[in-house]
Every structure is written in C-alpha cells, then in structure tokens.
Amino acid sequence: MKPTMTDRLGRPLRDLRISVTDKCNFRCSYCMPPEIFDKYFKFLPKDEILSFEEITRLSTIMVKEAGIRKLRVTGGEPLMRHEVSKLIAMLNKIEGVDDIAMTTNGSLLPKHAKALKEAGLNRVTISLDSLNDEKFRKINGRDVGVQEVLDGVRAAEEAGLGVKMNMVVKRGMNEDDILPMVEYFKDTNVILRFIEFMDVGNSNGWKLDHVVSKKEMYHIINNVFPIEPKDANYRGEVAERFVFKDNQNEIGIISSVTDAFCSDCSRIRLSADGKFVTCLFSGEGHDVRSVIRSGATDPEIAGFISELWAKRDDRYSEERLNNTDKKDIKKIEMSHIGG
Ligand code: SAM
Ligand code: SF4
Ligand code: SF4
C-alpha cells in the first residue's frame, strides 16, 4: 500500500467524500432553508459539474497515490443525480477500494436500492430527524412523510445494504424525538447516530443555544435505555460509539461542536463542481476541475492533491471551542459538500 499523504498537523489523508450534486428534493430547515434555497436559487449548471469519468479518475488517483480505501457518495441528495448507480459501478471497479457508502435522505431508495447494491454499494447512511410525521414534514420542507423514509430503510435492507441512521438534533426542533427514535430502532440492525447541530455554511441561522450537546444526548438516552461505551473502530472515527447494555446493539453520538475531533480528521471532500475541500467549515475549495480539464496528467493531479493536503492546517471546530463568535466568516454550504 502506498504511504499516506500527511498534512501540517501530521494527519493522514484516509477518507474521500464525493458530492455528486448540489440539488436536493428536501429543504431541511437546518441545511437548505426553503426561504434561501427557493425557486430563484441558482444551482450549479451542468457543465460545471464533474462527470462520472472525472470523478472516477480523481478517485482512482487518490486510491493509488494516497492509499484511500473508503469512498462515500453524498450530495445534496445523491439519488437526484441521474443514473448515480453507474458511478457506483465505476468506483467499484477501482482496484483497492474496500468500501463504498452513500449518505441519503432515503426517500428515493425504494426506486434505487437494488441497482445500487448490484453496482457495488455496500452501505447507506439514511437521515431521519423525527418519527413524528407532522413534525418531519415541516423539517424537510417538502411535506415528505416519515413512512417514505422508512420505506427507503426497508428497501435498503431488502437489497442487502448495511444501514445507519443519522439524526441531527437541534434544540427546539427535535430533542424530544431522541427517545422515540431509540425505542424504534434499538432492537433492529439499524445503527443510530445522533449529530450535534453544526454551524456549517451561512444559511442555517446556527446559534450555540441550538446545540444539544453530546453529554445531554447521552443522559437523555442513558436514563431510559442504559448504554455503555464501545471502543472506536479506527483512528479518526467521528462517532463516539456506545452499546445498549441489554442487547449490545450499537448507537453513536457525533459531537462536532462540544467535543471536536480535528486532531484525528483525515477527510477530504470533493464538491460536485470539482473543488477539494479540506475542512467542513472552509470558505472555499481547491479547484481540481480546471486542473483536470486543462489536460493534466495523473501524476500532475496527484501532485496537486498532495500539495494541498501538505499545506492543510484546518482545525475549525477546536478553534470554535475557544471562540464561538465566528459567524461572519464565509463558509461553504453543507449542501455543496455533503457532510
Ligand atoms: N441529502 C443527504 C442526506 O440528507 O443524508 C446527504 C447530504 S446531507 C448534507 C448529509 C448529512 O448532513 C445529513 O445526515 C444531514 O442531516 C447532515 N447535516 C446537514 N446540515 C447539518 C448541520 N447544520 N449540522 C449537522 N448535520 C447536518
Ligand atoms: Fe437535502 Fe440532505 Fe440537506 Fe436535507 S440534509 S436539505 S436531505 S442535502
Ligand atoms: Fe475536520 Fe474541519 Fe471538522 Fe475539524 S472542523 S473535524 S478539521 S472537518
């Protein structure tokens, strides 16, 4: 295996997240608020979006040169990208890729799960923020019912995909939905992960008061369904893992705000329009699309990536712990880089 690339803080490059579209069929209030992402909002034009061939070429270079083994496809909503299972099949052919996952809102999985599995997708992370139908319809801004997402979960399981479930917890929005969610999924094969609401982008009106901390979530869960810590799978895993004492099933809490994990952050994100983003809170990305489209060779592209990773010193969340007044900084929107 090729030696990994290392950044200025000694962090290896291990994980590639590929956003395949900035469009979404939902308008979650904490991600793409409908009043901002309205009918006048300018999404990326088609010619600015990386083709499947370009994505596959970049991924191949990163597998070969940086030793990346895991790929995650995300969005916007990745299932909005036409024929995305073709991309999965192309990524699956790259020698050295061990695992391909997708993060999705789940609503289109009944249509696509089987083809995705056949193309080589291993796992999906499905996002669902409440089991209360009325509330969920409001949160997603498109009047999509809970059952549509649960049908997506079932379709994924029936297709043989591993399933994790993300729930973003925002105070005043859905902290009272944590326990119903745990109760519903705790005795199933679906691994639940609760995520602290983050100040990604500049559109979601984030305030520190909105954050329900990992500690608080832990107590809410543990008081009713006792849990105990479980060791991390690997260095750089973002979710702190726990198991239920009664059945040893796993759940996780992602504490990006109150307990930052920058020191182990080994992720790079590729936006739909071909920018490498070295931190979820970056103001801008590094334009690899123009490098690729200018006719660069594979070693030249590899050089571009290793140079930008070598310069990386991002540790936004750790810095935020000391200074929460960072709201005026321009940041890339979550729907551009996919979490
Ligand atoms: N559309 C897909 C979905 O919702 O799963 C993939 C893209 S979405 C941006 C990826 C994940 O980021 C979702 O689980 C979503 O809930 C989460 N997310 C979006 N905005 C967030 C925020 N401000 N804080 C924490 N998580 C957020
Ligand atoms: Fe769309 Fe996912 Fe953002 Fe919701 S969280 S608006 S589903 S991209
Ligand atoms: Fe990684 Fe940036 Fe998040 Fe820190 S703030 S964990 S560097 S993405």
Describe the overall structure.
It catalyses: GTP + AH2 + S-adenosyl-L-methionine = (8S)-3',8-cyclo-7,8-dihydroguanosine 5'-triphosphate + 5'-deoxyadenosine + L-methionine + A + H(+). Belongs to the radical SAM superfamily. MoaA family. S-adenosyl-L-methionine binds at residues 30, 76, 127, 198. By secondary structure, this protein is an alpha/beta fold. The chain has a single domain, classed as Aldolase class I (TIM Barrel), CATH 3.20.20.70. Helix content is 31%, strand content 17%. The protein is built from eleven helices and twelve strands. It has helices spanning 52-66, 84-92, 109-119, 133-139, 146-159, 178-185, 214-224, 289-293, 298-310, 316-322, 334-337, and strands at 15-19, 70-74, 99-104, 123-127, 162-169, 191-196, 227-229, 239-244, 250-254, 267-270, 275-277, 286-287. A twelve-stranded mixed sheet has the order 7-8-9-6-5-4-3-2-1-10-11-12. β11 (275-277) and β12 (286-287) form a beta hairpin. α1 (52-66) packs across α9 (298-310). The radius of gyration is 19 Å and the shape is globular. The two termini are 28 Å apart. Bound molecules: S-adenosylmethionine and iron/sulfur cluster (2 copies). One iron/sulfur cluster is lined by residues 260-262, 265, 279-281, 314-317.
- Which architecture name does CATH use? Alpha-Beta Barrel
Structural class: alpha/beta
Report low-confidence residues grouped into runs of 5 or more: none
- Strand fraction equals 15-25%
Fourth-tier CATH superfamily name: Aldolase class I
